[in-house]
Design brief:
By secondary structure, the chain is an all-alpha fold. It contains nine helices and two strands; from the N terminus they run αααααααβααβ. A two-stranded antiparallel sheet has the order 1-2. Helix 5 packs across helix 9 and helix 7 packs across helix 8.
Length: 216
Amino acid sequence: MPKGVTRRRPRTRAALLRAALETFAEHGFHAATIEQVCERAGYTRGAYYSNFASKEELFLALFDEHSERTVSRLAASIDALTAEEYTLTRLAELAAAIEPDERDWYLVTTEFTLHAIRDPQAAWVLARHDERLRAEIARGLTLVLRRAGRELTVDADRFARLLIALREGGLAQSYVEPEALPPGDLERQFLPALLEASTRPASRPQSKRSGSDAVI
């Protein structure tokens, strides 16, 4: 492959992903066409198919990109805390932060989840991506709680499922009634109590930075 094509490929892929998110959010995952994504991105169908084999593959690439970006943002916020700020309330506040562009992603992922519920193959694939995200959340949560002098008394993967359910369920209500329930309010109100009830003082408290203790 020519070097110029190699250098352009990441830019092409990034542009297609941005265009796909906007197109899926505007028209819906099923109604949106590959032609609409290509037109918005300014690329041909050939460029699309050199990066993605299907709309499902495109969505899953968006899923992984969104997961990585969300986890990275949270990790950066947590790493910026001082030792005194490592409280369950402060950690819950950071976890409750909702980016302004989250609504578009919520629209897209909710529709694809409904599709996966109806399609066993799509459900299996989506579950594998969900599993990787939960593993990152569970690992990061375990390390962050250790810095705060706490440890989980429940299975970390199951607690990660609860965190995701709280976030997604809260956002569903917030986007329907944004004035009655601003995004992130349920996490800010109830997550500290959930963390308190599901953790205990760690047997060996850990300092904020110990060895390779990176959150993510």
